[in-house]
Amino acid sequence: MSATPSYSYEELQRRRTRQASVLLTPDIYDWYEQMMASHDLYYDETRASWLLFRYEDVMRVLQDTRTFSSQRTTNPDGSVDPIASGGILGMDPPRHRQLRSLISMAFTPRAIAQLEPRIRAIVNDLLDHVGDEDGMDAINDLAFPLPIIVIAELLGVPASDREQFRQWSSDFVGTDYALRLATSKKIAAYFQALVEQRRRQPGEDLVSELIRAEIDGERLPAPDILGTCLLLLIAGHETTTGLIGNAIVCLDEHAEAKQELLAHPELLPSAIEEVLRYRAVVHTIPRIVAVDTMLCGQEIKAGNLLLPLFAAANLDSRQFPDPGTFDIRRDPNRHLGFGYGIHFCLGAPLARLETRIALSALLERFPNFHRRHAGQLELRPSSFIYGLKQLPIVFESVS
Ligand code: HEM
Fold first, then answer.
1. ipTM of the assembly?
2. Is Iron included in the keywords of this UniProt record (predicted)?
């Protein structure tokens, strides 16, 4: 196959839009398996992108940030728009390093561990509203509201505005690129007002901390504060919803694993890591090839889009023995569910904590949960998040 040319800014935007219009489907895992049998790298016309499948190759891309840039959204003049670029997720060093070190102060494992009692209270409250007889929709009654409440509280968003956030968050991760842009503007305007309010009246929340934060003696520019708020809201919500939902499905589909977990609740953290490997929520985050390069014996031109497939790499048998087996005791388990390298998920400790508390409460209160309908699962429409739209479960035992 001949290498594709590099693209102008406009062409890149057009291709990104095209890429975002391709949905993840429930049979995507069968497709990965088929593709991986014959390809390491594949040019996908529909997505107008190179797809990369193997663990080792994906790791190489994630570590070589000079060749494979995360800075995919630049203005036509070459400057970076911190809001459209998705905050640090869409930045390269050295700017990425500076900003990340500031935000990570709020996300230390210690700071996150302090949230445990509050998260437990939110989960209990959500489960208190579930009727024993009717069962529940594990997505809409638990997995969806939990992370939005937590992130809204972290950011200091008033409870009365949370409904609005739910809608924005859904609109943003969908596949309608125009809606996504329009929504990001609405969220930016919302945070703009919140930032101004916190400037006048600082609190203990993350927005106030970002306002106080300094890089090399200088205050953070307003667009960076907004970009960070938007990123935390989006990165922290639907992803965690997806993980909780995928975990429930994995346990439902693997009855022996669920029994083992009920007998040994201490295996829960390791079970969650296995869900992140076996049914990754974030399947890929694009990179832009910054300089002409060779990858898997193929020349790729600067400007091309590359999708390192975390979800496929997690099934690479060269890295994971029996990759198709859901093994809650898998060790080692160096999955790429949270990415790798300088962009490794900043919210991983929070996502793990929320998921652990939600699952342990569910298993404790309703150990006999089962999916209400066997068969095809319905995914939320998204091109990069693999999570369910709904997940009705019932609690009676099935004999
Ligand atoms: C980055 C996945 C939850 C904040 C990432 C990346 C992945 C990921 C794969 C790497 C992206 C890349 O390499 O380009 C997930 C999953 C989650 C989750 C699967 C839930 C199960 C969260 C939460 C937060 C968060 C709860 C915060 C509230 C971030 C941020 C980055 C990031 C700020 C960008 C880090 C950087 O660019 O340096 N996440 N995430 N994530 N995540 Fe998460």
1. 0.99
2. yes
